[in-house]
Amino acid sequence: MRIANLDGRLVLLTSGGALDVERASGQRFSADPHAVYARWDEFTAWAAGLADPEAETFDETRLRAPSPTPSQVFGVGLNYRDHAAESGLGLPDSPAVFTKFPSCLTGPYGGIALTGSTVDWEVELVAVIGREARNVPAERGWDHVAGLTAGQDLSDRTVQLAGPAPQFSLGKSAPGFGPTGPWLVTPDEFADRDNLELSTEVNGESVQKGRTSDLIFSVPELVARLSAILPLRPGDLIFTGTPSGVGMARSPQRFLAAGDELVTTVEGIGSMRHRFTEPS
C-alpha cells in the first residue's frame, strides 16, 4: 500500500491515481495526512477492503511530506561503515542520535533556500512509526513501522560543526532541510525491506549510492534502541543514516550552490527532486 499527502490531504495511491481518503471513507478518516498514523491498524484494514476504488490522476509536484507534523524526528549519524570511514571516525557502539526539528520538513519537490556556502547532501531511508513503541525488542521492530519513504538530511556544515560543541540539530534543521517523499510505502510492498538501494545525484552526476543492507543499526534495531529510551509515537520519523559520498568528505570539498538540482532516490519508493536558491 502507498499513501501520500496531496495538497495537504491524505490520499491512497492506486494504479489509477490518487483516492481522497476522507471522501472515500465517508469522513470516517480525516483528510489530515498526519492523523492517520494514530489509527494505523484501523486504516489499513479499511484500505484492504476497498474494491476497485475510483482514483484520479494527479500532478506529482502537488505532493507534500507524507508525515508532515510529527512530534519527534530522529536522525542517526555514522550508520554506514563507509560513511564512518570517510568521516575519519570509528564505528559507533550505539546509534549516534540527534534531532531534526519538525519545522525543517518539506515535500518531495520544489525549491529550497540555502543558508550559506557549505550546505551538504545526505540521502537517507526514512522510517515512519505507525504504532506506539516502548521497550520494543528488535525482532518486533518492523511491527511498529507504518512504512518507508525517501529523505534528505540536508546539513549546513558550518553551523553543524561550530564549536566548542557541535550543533548537529541546528545545522540540520533550517527550513526545507528535511525533505521526505514522494509517498509512504508499507513494508509488505518490498521484496526485501532490509536491502534497498539509495542514491543522490547533483545536476545529473551520481554522488552517492549505497544499500540499506549496509546499515550498522537496521530499522528494527533503531526502533528497539530508541524505544528503550523514550516512546516512539505514531507519525514520528527516523532518518536512518547516509552512505558515503557526502560533499564535506570529498577532496576538494563540494557543497550545494544556487541553481543546483538534487535528485534523491530510494529503490521501491521513488525519487524526490529539489532546486536550490540563494539564501533568503
UniProtKB/TrEMBL annotation:
SUPFAM superfamilies, per database record: FAH
Record GO biological process: carboxylic acid metabolic process
Name of the molecule in the record: Fumarylacetoacetate hydrolase family protein
Entry's family note: Belongs to the FAH family.
Keyword DNA repair: no
Keyword Phosphoprotein among UniProt keywords: no
Keywords of the record: Hydrolase, Metal-binding
InterPro entries, A to Z: FAH, Fumarylacetoacetase-like_C, Fumarylacetoacetase_C_sf
GO molecular function: hydrolase activity; isomerase activity; metal ion binding
Fumarylacetoacetase-like C-terminal domain span: 73-276
Pfam family, any one: FAA_hydrolase
